[in-house]
TrEMBL record, chains A, B:
It comes from Nonomuraea montanisoli. GO terms for molecular function: DNA-binding transcription factor activity; transcription cis-regulatory region binding. CDD domains: HTH_LacI, PBP1_LacI_sugar_binding-like. Residues 330-361 are annotated as: Disordered. PROSITE patterns: HTH_LACI_2. This is LacI family DNA-binding transcriptional regulator.
Length: 361, 361
DNA sequence: CGAAACACCGTAAACGTTTACAGATCCTTG
DNA sequence: CAAGGATCTGTAAACGTTTACGGTGTTTCG
C-alpha cells in the first residue's frame, strides 16, 4: 500500500500547477489542452480524491450519523432502512451509533458532534433528560430527533402518535364486542411505556368502558417477560377477552402462554401487538398490530435533516406521523388476507420486501 | 453555530503556543502549570478536537465501513449487531453501506476506499466477480470479505459452511425417519443457492438416498415465492414427508401452504429453515433451522480487521465458521423448549435479546 | 563560576485539498 | 503594432491538527 497519488503528483506529471489540477477535477472552466493533460495523468496514476483533506477545507464531511439504542430493534431497523437510501441519494454516508441502553452514551454521542466528523445527526433517544435538552441546545451540528421533545427545543422533531395508535386498537377490539380489554405494558418510566399506559386509559374512557386496575399488567418489552406478565394476568382475572400488548414481542409471549393455557386466539382472547414488525406477519396466528410508522418516521427525519443541511436557518419543524392498524388473524378469525394463500404470502413478502438473499456461503 | 474554538483559540487564551496545547491534549510530558492553563482554557471554551484535521495529519480516520446488500436481511443484520460493539470497543466508528442488489455498487464502494474516509472495510459480496477480485487486489485499505473468495486473494476471509449445514439438516430429518426429503431452493445462480443445491445432493448421497429431480423446486428467497414453490411441489408429488428450505422465509411460506393444504407439521411434513433468524423462533410451529453463524462471522470479521489495522503485514487469513442445527417444533412434535412455557419464552428472549424497547412515542 | 545536561516550550513544516489574487498569455481591436 | 480586455494559470494562504527541531531558562557538576 504505497503512498497514493495526490494532486501534487498529478501536477508534476501533467506539468501544471496543483491549482489547475484541482480546477479540472472540480469541473471549473479550464483550457481543453490542460483538461486533457490532467485527466490523462489522473487516469494513469489511478488518482482518487482524498475525502479527509476535502472535508477539512470545505467544512463538509458528507457524513450523517444515526444514533439509537440498538439496531436489532425492529422499529429502529425499519427507520434505518428508510434513512439509508434517502441519505445515499443525496450523497451522504451513514455513520451508525448503537448506543445501547445507557443514557450516558447518548449524551456522549451528542457531544462527539463537536468533533465535526459528521454534518448532522438523526437521533432516537431512549428517554429525554435534562442533559439531552441541554446538549441539543448547544449542538454544533443540526440534529433531528425522532421521539417527542418539548416545545421550544431548537431541533427538528418527528413524532409518533401512540395515543391514537392505542385508541385505534382499543376501538377495534371494542367493535368486535370485547369489553374486558387488558393492557400488557412495558416499564412505565420509559417514554413509550408511559405514553401507552396513558393512551389506554383515555381510549377506555372515550368508549365509556371502566378503567380496571386489575386489567393492567406491567412487565418488560421482551417476549419472555410478556409471557410472564400475561400468565400473571390470567391467574388474577378469568374473564379477559382481549389483550392490548405494548409491542409485538410482548404479544408473541402472550400467544405462547394463551396456547399453553388452552385458550383459542382470537375466539376466546383477541390479541393486538404494537409496532407491526416482521414478526407480526410471521407468527401464527398472525398478529394484528398497530404500526406507529417507524419506516415513515425514518424517511421524514432524513428529509428534514437534508433540508436543514441545505438551507440551514429556518424554524425548527415538528412532524407527527399517524399510526395505522394492521388487522390480522389474532383479532378476527378470518382476515381477508389469510384465506387466500397467495394473498397472504404476497402481503408478507411486501412487508419484508428486501429481506432477501438467503445469507451467504 | 458560531465558528467553534480551535487549538489556536486555546493557545491565545492560555498564553501558550499551539504546540503546547496539542501536547497537553495528547498527554505528552508538560509542566504542570501549563497543563493547568491549557485545560482551564479548553474547559471554558468548550473545546472539542476536530476529527477531520486529526485524521488528515495522522492518516487514521478511526472509521471502518461495513458493506452488504441490505441491512434488512436478518443474516446481515446479525453480522452488523456483532460487528458494531467490537469496533466501538476498539474506538472505531461504523460507516454503513447498503449497496442493494446491484453488483456495480459493490465495486463502487471498493473504489471509494481510495478516498480514505475509512481505515478498512468489511464486505459481504452478493457474488464474487472478476471485477471484485481485481479491486480487492488493488484496494487502498485492508478489506475483510465475508463469503468465500478464491485462494490467493490478498484479503482476510470469513466463510460459512453451508455444505455441512445442509448435511446436518438432512441427517436430522433422516434420523427422524423421513425419506422423501424435498429441497426448496432459491435461484441457483446466486452463491448461496448454488451451494445449497450442491450440498443437498451430496447429503442425500452420503445417506444412500436417491436423488430425485422431482423433489427439487426452485423459487426465490422470499416468503411468497417459497409458498408458491411448495404448492407446485405438492401438486407434483404427493408423498413428500420433509422440506429442506434454503432460508427461513421460504420455510415460512411453506408453513402457510402446508396449513392451507391441511397437512400437519411436523407429523405429516417436517420443515427445516436456514439462517436461524428471529422469525424461526417466532413462527408457529417454531421452525427448526440451520444457523450458519452469521453473528459469529460478523464478530470474527471485525476481529480480523482490527488485527490487520494494528499490525498490518501478516499473511491473509481464512476462517470458516461451523454451522449449527437449532431444533424446534417444525421437525419434532415435542421439542424440550416448547413444553415449558417459561423455557420457550426464555429461549426466544435470548435469541432476540436486545430486540428491546417498544419503539418510541 | 562556566559549561554541560536537562526540561520545557515555540517556530514552522507538513497532511491534501480549495480558492483568492495577481501574473501570464492570448486574442481582439483601433 | 500597441493597447486593452478576456482567458487561463500559478503562487500562496487557509482549513485544524501533529511533530521535528532548535532555542531558552534552569539545574548540576567539575
Amino acid at each position: 500500500m504505497a503512498q497514493g497519488p495526490t494532486i501534487t503528483t498529478i501536477a508534476e506529471r501533467a506539468g501544471v500547477s496543483i491549482a489547475s489540477v484541482s480546477r479540472v477535477l472540480n469541473g471549473l472552466p479550464t483550457r481543453q489542452e490542460t483538461v486533457r493533460k490532467v485527466m490523462a495523468a489522473a487516469e494513469e496514476l489511478g488518482y482518487v480524491r482524498n475525502a479527509v483533506a476535502r472535508s477539512l477545507k470545505s467544512r463538509r464531511t458528507h457524513q450523517v450519523a444515526f444514533a439509537m439504542a440498538d439496531v436489532g430493534n425492529p422499529a429502529y431497523l425499519a427507520m434505518l432502512r428508510e434513512i439509508q437510501p434517502v441519505l445515499k441519494a443525496a450523497g451522504y454516508r451513514l455513520v451508525l451509533h448503537s448506543t445501547g441502553a445507557v443514557v450516558a452514551d447518548e449524551i456522549d454521542v451528542l457531544h462527539s458532534l463537536g468533533e465535526r466528523y459528521v454534518d448532522g445527526m438523526i437521533m432516537v433517544p431512549l428517554r429525554v433528560t435534562e442533559a439531552h435538552l441541554q446538549m441539543l441546545g448547544a449542538a454544533r451540528a443540526p440534529v433531528v430527533v425522532i421521539g417527542s421533545v418539548p416545545e421550544g427545543t431548537p431541533v427538528d422533531n418527528v413524532r409518533a402518535d401512540s395515543r391514537t395508535g392505542v385508541r385505534l386498537a382499543v376501538d377495534h377490539l371494542h367493535a368486535l364486542g370485547r369489553c374486558r380489554i387488558a393492557l400488557v405494558n412495558g416499564p412505565t418510566d420509559t417514554v413509550p411505556g408511559a405514553a401507552r399506559g396513558a393512551a389506554y386509559r383515555e381510549a377506555l374512557a372515550e368508549l365509556g368502558l371502566p378503567y380496571d386496575e386489575e386489567l393492567v399488567e406491567i412487565g418488560d418489552f421482551y417476549r419472555a417477560e410478556g409471557g410472564r406478565a400475561v400468565a400473571a394476568l390470567l391467574n388474577r382475572v378469568s374473564d379477559v377477552d382481549a389483550l392490548m400488548c405494548a409491542n409485538d414481542l410482548i404479544a408473541l409471549g402472550a400467544l405462547d402462554v394463551l396456547r399453553a393455557a388452552g385458550k383459542r386466539v382470537p375466539e376466546d382472547v383477541a390479541v393486538v401487538g404494537m409496532d407491526d414488525t416482521d414478526l407480526a406477519a410471521a407468527s401464527w396466528p398472525s398478529l394484528t398490530s398497530v404500526s406507529l410508522g417507524s419506516a415513515e418516521r425514518g424517511r421524514v427525519a432524513a428529509e428534514l435533516l437534508l433540508d436543514r443541511l441545505q438551507d440551514g436557518e429556518h424554524e425548527p419543524r415538528v412532524v407527527t406521523v399517524p399510526p395505522r392498524l394492521v388487522v390480522r388473524a389474532s383479532t378476527t378469525p378470518e382476515p381477508p388476507a389469510v384465506r387466500d394463500v397467495t394473498g397472504a404470502a404476497g402481503q408478507a413478502a411486501t412487508q419484508s420486501r428486501s429481506t432477501e438473499g438467503g445469507g451467504t456461503s
